[in-house]
Specification:
Blueprint (H helix, E strand, L loop, with lengths): L3 E2 L4 E6 L5 E7 L9 H11 L16 E5 L1 E2 L2 E2 L4 E6 L14 E2 L5 H8 L15 H16 L4 E9 L2 E2 L9 H4 L9 H16 L6 E8 L13 H10 L4 E6 L10 H4 L3 E4 L2 E4 L7 E2 L2 E2 L4 E7 L9 E5 L4 E4 L10 H36 L1
Antiparallel strand pairs: 1-2, 2-3, 3-7, 4-7, 5-6, 8-18, 9-10, 9-11, 11-17, 12-17, 13-14, 15-16, 18-19
Helix pairs in contact: 1-3, 1-8, 3-8, 6-8
């Protein structure tokens, strides 16, 4: 199903940008995990609109309601259903788009696929769908914390401004220290100014999010088509507005020789380590125990307030000046979404690995 993700820890998101609600159903979460609505809400608060001067002015509390699967503060092992009601939708603001295809949006392609589309804010193609991912990711995050596994991401580039971030040491406090979520404070100030200038000019900006997953044990990944890096790539590229994904040295590896790129092994207190991490913590599609590092490229927000050439549903050329409430740059609010997708991939592969090995390990223990 196109709205489902995962194998053993499976999520299915539902809802539209301007429908009554959005949400997620999570199947495969182990029983007895202590989790509260407040823990889920904390992640949703990082994603919600209207949280700063550089985000959309749409006002949504994005308050989560637990419908099933959690009882007396613990997961029951049955499907978990979470819902967030849309409060501040303004569908009338999109009436002028009923017969118009917005440039670089999913309007035309949804029409081409289904012969019908929800023009109210893009329907399912809207980033509001990611509320379900973030809510599910909060539960995955709690599960992974029991194994000391942590996913963090931060903004490292907005337009032509590039900030620095040491993914080995960056903390959540470093990332949350400013509204653009760039741990380089001086560059962050410039980024905020650049985004505000783009908003005033009716334009938008893109950039790069850098991520790290710490504490992942060696051995996660399912060759050949469910390689860990392949599933991470799919997870990140399924986020709205993403345009590229790379892991480790990524595209820079093409300018290296094999000698320069190879991650030489050595032993440290009976733990296998590598002298470099060009592979980004994954080799042969399987985690090697090092930090997993990656980058995700996001395009400039497609909705801008400048006059643009486009066509209507009759394929006639027209001009469009968009209306509505939109982020001039999606990256600051994309951070919790990237974190959520990383957590969902890792917990799914962790459960798959445990399932794969436990049968024979149980037999050896019994003997």
């Amino acid at each position: 199903m196109s709205s489902s993700f995962g194998t053993l820890f499976k999520i299915t998101t539902w809802g539209e940008s301007h429908g009554k609600a959005v949400g997620v159903v999570i199947d495969g979460c182990p029983a007895q995990l202590p989790i509260t609505a407040e823990e889920i809400q904390a992640e949703l608060d990082r994603r919600k609109p209207g949280q700063s001067t550089i985000s959309t002015p749409r006002k949504e509390g994005d308050t989560v309601d637990i419908l099933s699967g959690i009882f007396e503060g613990k997961t029951t092992g049955t499907p978990i259903s979470l819902i967030v009601t849309n409060k501040d939708q303004n569908s009338k603001a999109y009436n002028h788009l009923k017969d118009i295809y917005r440039p670089s949006h999913a309007d035309y392609t949804f029409d081409a696929k289904f012969g019908f589309r929800d023009y109210r804010g893009g329907g399912r193609s809207s980033a509001r769908e990611t509320i379900g991912r973030v809510a599910a990711g909060a539960i995955a995050k709690k599960l992974l914390s029991l194994r000391n596994i942590e996913s963090l991401s931060c903004v490292t580039q907005i337009h032509t401004l590039i900030g620095s971030a040491d993914l080995n040491t960056v903390t959540l406090n470093d990332i949350e220290a400013n509204i653009v979520r760039c741990p380089d404070p001086e560059i962050a100030k410039l980024m905020i100014t650049r985004i505000e200038e783009a908003r005033k000019d009716g334009d938008s900006l893109g950039g790069i999010v850098s991520g790290v997953i710490r504490g992942v044990p060696a051995g996660l990944g399912e060759p050949v088509f469910d390689k860990l890096k392949a599933d991470l790539a799919k997870a990140m590229m399924s986020i709205p507005a993403t345009m590229g994904f790379q892991i480790g040295s990524g595209f820079d590896s093409v300018s290296m020789t094999g000698r320069e790129h190879n991650d030489a092994f050595y032993a440290e207190k009976e733990t296998v380590r590598t002298k470099t991490n060009n592979s980004g913590g994954i080799q042969g599609g399987i985690s090697n125990g090092e930090y997993i590092t990656f980058q995700v490229a996001f395009k400039p927000t497609a909705t801008i307030f400048k006059v643009q050439d486009t066509i209507d549903t009759n394929k006639k050329s027209i001009t469009l000046q968009a209306k509505g409430r939109h982020d001039p740059c999606v990256l600051p609010r994309a951070i919790p979404i990237v974190d959520a997708m990383a957590n969902l991939v890792i917990i799914d592969h962790l459960l798959r690995q445990k399932s794969q090995r436990s049968f024979f390990e149980d037999l050896s223990n019994e003997s």
